[in-house]
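Because discrete structure vocabularies remain unfamiliar, it helps to consider an illustrative case, giving the amino acid sequence and backbone structure tokens:
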Amino acid sequence: MAEQGAPALSLPEDWPAHPDPILALNGMGTFDWDLDAGLVHLDAQAHRIFDVTAEEDDRRPGTVGKRLLPSERERLDAMVARAMKEGRQNYGTYVRLRLRDGGLRWAHVQGYIQRDGTGRPRRITGILRDASEELGDIAARRERAAQAAARRRQTNVVEAATAALAHARTVQDVIEVVKDSHGLALLGSKSLVLGLVEAGRIRLVAEGPAGASVPGTRVTRIDEPYPMSEAVRTLSPRFIESPEEFAERYPILWPHITGLDITSAAYLPLIAQARPIGGMGLLYSDRRGFTPDERNVLIALGSSIAQSLQRAMFYEQEKDLAQGLQQAMLPRTIPSVPGADVAVRYRSGYAGGSLGRDIGGDWYDLIPLPGGRVGAVIGDVQGHDTHAAAVMGQLRIVLRAYAAEGHAPATVMARASVFLHELDTDRFATCLYAEADLATGVVQLVRAGHIDPLVRHSDGSCHLIAVDGGLPLGLSAEFGSLQYPVGTMELDPGQSLVLCTDGLVEQPGADLDDGMRALARSVADGPDDVRDLADRLIAMAESRGGDDDVALLVLRRHVPAERQPVGRLQQYVASGDPEALTRARHMIRTAVRDWGAEDDSYEIELVADELITNALMHTEGAAIVTLRVLSGRERRLRIEVEDSSSALPRRREPGADGVSGRGLLLVDQLTDVWGVEARGGGKCVWCEFAVPDES
């Protein structure tokens, strides 16, 4: 009832509308199926949907049911029977109809099952509608979704392939990525072949799976009628979309691959910097033809593989160049050293597989010196480039020259530092120089900013040798201001001296001292043989995968065999060691007798004893006594006594009651000639006696 004061509503005469016009306006028809009578009533819209006329409709279910495809009719009957059996009231599904012109139409059927009081189905009423446009929209959406999914898969293929190739550093790495079974699945192909262009020919370098290549095509000319040759020659891909097309276009190749069940193939040129570097063939057995998107993906993959191959080629070329240049800068051979076993090793930073690294400045050297001595050098020029290698080569040569000239170790290092500074380069270098007398085992060590050496004892233990060091080479141009302390040690028979660069020790994020302790443990646990030990240490660096270069030199002193004096003898006399002084005196007495100077034995022993005593008293350090025979116009016996003091001896007149000051007077009176030489951080006092010829 309308509220008071409100105007009365004006309703149309046909309100409310009958449901049949509403359904018709929405393109829907109705049906009413009397299950007891076996008759079905269709309205006019339902007739239009089933494409039957009212005259054709005899109201029998089978009459309109003939429009359903047989499989659809069976499916609909089964659905209705199942709904009635399960006691459901509703069912609905899409069915396909065959129209009178032979075309197909999708329709949607929705029915309502009416039952009597006992639950027995008596009647089915429902609606029909043309679903062709609806399903067409769904199909279009599905197609668009499928295309989007395909594009995502294709994008994922490119991204996954690119990610896998990003870790490939060498050509073999690229080949392994491409021919790997996972790679084949990624590319979607059954098999592949990959070839590289070399001197106008294509050489196959990969196939997958095994046997995918054709016999006789391992090496082919670019102008031969093969699809890969054609792709490389024209710089354009070749897509073969059917077996018939393959057989027609490439009749020479097709008979050889019929057993592979190939239905299509894609041959891609691998192009880098506008020139072909190779080609790749992908063969498929589950497709015919390629969509534009698939072609674009394959071309993109080919480009990615080509760029990876070129990067790998450049890397290998640079690696070969760097290693060749490094080897040219290092000594070609290591001389045989009487009295010692020596092993040297070099590991390039490229061995760690890093990109962007060039040649390093690490080096080693072994320098034979007069009198049975040997100089061992290890060093590292700052930087990893060809300039560092060039500086290293020059520095190695001049250091060898200074040592061979007979300069003391400290002088060798100081001169090398000045030389490097005068090269007008911004590089500096660290270096360790060890001069060893293998007859006595005395080793003089000079360190210029380098890591300390290690000594491995005959019992297998190992410890660091702390050597006072000076500035790295090249940081000062004033020779007189350079101070390189000389450390002295004795290398006993069976002991090994280990010199290395920091690439063997340093690890990212680790303390250098920890690295040195770890190296000492590795040396102690290693074998006695110097070559086996060197191999073990380099293998350790390899397993660690460091990017820095490593230079290594291991020198092991022999256990001396019993031998007669051969013209040069040397003895190390430690301060406060009376036995060493006794051994030195015995060595002098024996040498004088064996060298035919018995007539002057008293004077020679007296002078030698005076020089040794002065060295021990006035320097509070050790002395090195050397005896040698010099030949020439007259045969001479030379005595050298080295100490670590740079203070020169002064000859002075002793007082009447003085007990000192007579030493040099005695030397001057008894010897034929004597003198003093500066030796780095110390000096050498020498004298000579004329002795008769052995004849």
Notes: DSSP finds 18 helices and 27 strands in the chain.
